Amino acid sequence: MKRLDNPFGLLAFLHWYHDWNKFQFSEDVLKKAVDQLDELGMPIVRMDILWADVHRGVGKFDFSRYDKIIALLEKKGIHLLGLLQYNKMEDTSDPRAWSRPPTSFDEFAGYVDATVNRYKNWVKHWEIWNEPNHPEYWAEPRDGLKKYVDLLRHARTAAKQADPSCVVLNGGLTDPLEEDLNNFYVNGGKDLADILSIHTFVDPLAKDREERFETKLRQAEKMMDQHGDSKKKIWITEMGCPGVPDFEKHQKWFAGECVNEDQQAEWLEKLYDIIKKHPRIEKLFWAFYCDTDDNFSDATDYMGLVRKDLSPKASFVRLQRLIKTFPS
Known about the structure:
Shape: globular
CATH architecture: Alpha-Beta Barrel
CATH class: Alpha Beta
Radius of gyration: 19 Å
């Protein structure tokens, strides 16, 4: 079992075996990927266990695909931050159905209960939804996170009933970070998250990149202080940038201009160095483990530590060294 008393984490789409992601992780690739994560020394990965994947009718579930993934992770001693999220997608005529909040929070809580119960002997950390303050992932008008906090309340109750020892994280909040952290607290989120989850993307090519990153950390710490939550730890559950090969066409991503593989590796190391100055930041999950196959149609597809064929980039080697040399 790998130790968790270090700052390292990784967003890994190991569950991607769907037509929309070109079945990226077949069983053969999946095993190679988990072996590579073990070689990296990665102690914990963040991965979805999608409601739509396991839903087989109200109160009915099929976890067979995830059983295989989690068994491979457990065999290598790699922990999981399980991301419980998105809709069950029964309305296939609606292209945004996956990101609409559930019509029944009680039914969503049933999915949480079943999932936590099934994996409670290995998985102890659960994050509820992804970026519920971003319109791409929460397809409803902004309401100051009122509806999301209500969903989190239902989900937390179900998770804790299934496994009282589990750790619940809020869905990672992105920009406008300060505004929506305040909304989260105002609407009663403080006691619903055991660890505060945030996302802190910045452009690594910006001259003031380090100040931009630290500003986000200070915003989170400020909101925690204002709402009496200073003792809680923070997990940055997504932070990263592309590493685009020099021979590929240059293209932008959502935070800025194209970044090459060497620049990606340098920024990764800088981020882990910066968070040392912020003792509340307990973990930083790099996004992503592996490049994606034209899923984002811009440089975001190159955010992996490894290329689509699993060949390591400079950032993989750099992170592996950081993990190996971290004080035990």
